[in-house]
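Methods: example folding runs. The two proteins below were folded one after another, and each record is reproduced exactly as written to the output file, sequence line first and structure-token line second.
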Amino acid sequence: MTTIPATEPTATATPLHWRTATDLRDQIADGSLTAVEVMTAFYDRIEATNDAVNVIVYRLPRDEALALAAEADAHRASGAALGSLHGLPIAIKDLVDVAGMPTSRGSRAFADRGPMPTDAPHVAKLRAAGALVIGKTNSPEFGVGTVTWNDVFGITRNPFDLSRHAGGSTGGVAAVAAGMLPFADGSDSGGSLRYPASFCNAVGLRTTPGLVPAAQGATSWEPHSVNGPVARNCRDVALLLTGMSGTDQLAPLSAGRAVATELGDVTTTPIRIAWSDDLGGLPISAEVRAAHAATRATLEAAGVEVVDVAIDTEGLDETWQTIELFGWFALLGTDPIEHPEAYRDDFVRNVTEASGYPSGQIIAALDRRYRAYTEMATLLEGFDAFVVPGAPVVAPDAGDKWVTEVDGTEFDRYFLWQRLACRLVPSAHPVLAMAAGFGPETGLPVGIQVVGRYGADDELLALGDRLERILGVSDVHPELG
């Protein structure tokens, strides 16, 4: 098998905050950089840009963060073994508990809670891998919606255009895209890792359920919502996944899961991709359609075989909606119904609807979900991946609560414009959202979603790494600060 070098040498003139996480990790490990130098560079960047972007909603004081970095340097100097993420700073989505930090979930109902006593499972794994947890990143209330705004912290803005949304619910993508962090964590039940990656020229992975452990109470056995990594390229996503993945006894879906590995050399074997322009006739803006076509042309010119396919999407929208809304009811019970003043109106509507679901509706959704899994698995027997657009539009205006119209189709609920992401959730296959180009009208980032084989997240990231090299846009940064 022919291989090509995995990485190019890092230019010493590149500012630390724009160097790859992989390079920074290696330079800390070999002593050419210290963790203190790296932490200083990222805190400088946060202080220069966070007021404009509004994404890191809680962070350790600088002196405490530098003390963590100094401890990491002392650990290296002692000759002790280093974790895969040693000395690298990270911030955690504000839906996830971090010991000693508050978790507001973007909700007035939780805004006054004090520091959490323990880490969530994947946060504990990140610390064990040597990552330095320095803060929390913004999320809409309970992660509802694919744009980040809430009544506690406000709007997270797109580093490529501050008048636009960064996407959500993983607002931390904006911190990565702006150079405030080398990588971040996120979660996804309906595009929350994937839409912001498309809007911010970044990479987010909706992982195979259980690969990243999650203890989620009543929904801990559910494959619907997953945690995953965010970075500026696929190789860094794979690196972060090494520190997030594996078994945790409190997360039942993680049982028996191996720890992910970093990417090796890049192979040059042929690539065969199944392709869809609109995932079953969903409305897509003219600008995204043009960018999607340009992405296809670039891939084909590089020798990638691209084949148009149509998958069965009947019932997928209803399936996703039933499972998503019932999950909120399972987690929170009737509190949003009894105390609606503490929650978003559309979140209250979700829980109220789900509280009345008949058993037949839930059974039908579970049955359709299994068929979605088998259909995707069968499709991917003949292809390396299935590709659809990353989002139906470029990043929307920051003042919008959600996108209410796409290509002449109007939406009266926040999740209806998410269907390009939601229709891929029931299959439970991993989905990589990655940078693909820029819109011909606005010049804003446009991405693709790449669906891989169930449980083969490492293969999917390796493929993404190859596609990234062909498309050549992952190292384009916003002109911010």
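Second run, written to the same file directly after the first:
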Amino acid sequence: MKPVMASLKARFGDRLTFHYHEVNAADSEAAVRDFDITSHPQVFLIDPRGRLVKSFAGVVPEGTLTAEVTRLLR
């Protein structure tokens, strides 16, 4: 997922904020709990108000994420 996320960040980074959490890291405990992370990787799209818009469990094709992000930025 790292290459996909790097591509998305290069394309949309001026309009989105990206956060990365390693599920086994001590400083990620709150994110794992708050977002009920049960698999790795997981991608969450959260709107500017902090609401969860969409989540993806497992590896997600770049085209799928690009389409969702494009739709949300309209």
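Comment on the second run: The chain has one domain: 2-73.
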